């Protein structure tokens, strides 16, 4: 009986030991399988990330290439814009010059009102001298007026008037007895000649030694000059 019990215990121990080995083997196998599974999953995830990074890098390079192309295109267009601006600037300057020329021509023809600083020159007859037999030797003649007008134009006057009557490109001045006729209109002395322009330049031009003023004084003409801050001359009316 004891021997039987002993064999039963031995067999029980063997069964328990077998069960323990079986469970341990299952655990080891499961752990190994789980480790391999995790390793495979980690490897697959890394490959995917590499592929994604490579795709993003390719996309970034493509964007940089397109950006460079766009910058080159932008630079080309900017150069065209600069060229066009220079061309427009030249054309604008040409139009501006033409407008200035047109304005000067209108001013010269008397088609527009003008005003600005200038010089007023007054020519008066000399005092009566009973010892002078020829009266023409102390009165203002048209050639005296012409000398003043011509010198003023040469000095840069943009517009000139005689006793308020503006001169035009084809004006004429004639002596008619004791008066001077300007474009058919008679004016007695004194004769006031107004000119628009640089007053200092106009004044200096007439005051040159041996110039117009000295010549007039030598011919017994009374000459006075006055700089004006503003002289206004209206446009010529009618057929001019």
TrEMBL record:
<comment type="similarity">
    <text>Belongs to the UPF0749 family.</text>
</comment>
<dbReference type="Pfam" id="PF05949">
    <property type="entry name" value="DUF881"/>
</dbReference>
<dbReference type="InterPro" id="IPR010273">
    <property type="entry name" value="DUF881"/>
</dbReference>
<feature type="coiled-coil region">
    <location>
        <begin position="53"/>
        <end position="87"/>
    </location>
</feature>
<keyword id="KW-0175">Coiled coil</keyword>
<protein>
    <recommendedName>
        <fullName>DUF881 domain-containing protein</fullName>
    </recommendedName>
</protein>
């Amino acid at each position: 009986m004891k021997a039987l019990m002993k064999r039963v215990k031995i067999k029980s121990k063997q069964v328990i030991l077998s069960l323990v080995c079986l469970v341990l083997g299952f655990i080891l196998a499961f752990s190994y399988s789980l480790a391999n599974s995790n390793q495979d999953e980690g490897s697959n995830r890394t490959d995917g990330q590499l592929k994604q990074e490579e795709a993003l890098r390719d996309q970034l390079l493509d964007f940089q290439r397109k950006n460079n192309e766009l910058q080159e295109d932008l630079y080309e267009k900017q150069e065209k814009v600069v060229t066009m601006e220079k061309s427009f600037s030249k054309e604008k300057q040409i139009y501006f010059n033409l407008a200035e020329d047109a304005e000067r021509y209108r001013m010269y023809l008397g088609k527009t009102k003008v005003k600005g600083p200038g010089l007023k020159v007054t020519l008066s007859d000399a005092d009566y001298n009973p010892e002078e037999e020829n009266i023409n030797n102390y009165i203002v003649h048209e050639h005296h007026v012409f000398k003043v007008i011509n010198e003023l134009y040469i000095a840069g006057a943009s517009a000139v008037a005689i006793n308020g009557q503006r001169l035009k490109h084809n004006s004429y001045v004639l002596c008619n007895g004791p008066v001077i006729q300007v474009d058919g209109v008679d004016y007695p002395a004194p004769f006031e000649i107004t000119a628009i322009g640089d007053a200092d330049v106009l004044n200096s031009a007439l005051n040159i030694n041996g110039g117009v003023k000295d010549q007039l004084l030598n011919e017994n003409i009374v000459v006075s000059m006055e700089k004006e801050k503003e002289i206004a001359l209206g446009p010529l009316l009618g057929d001019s």
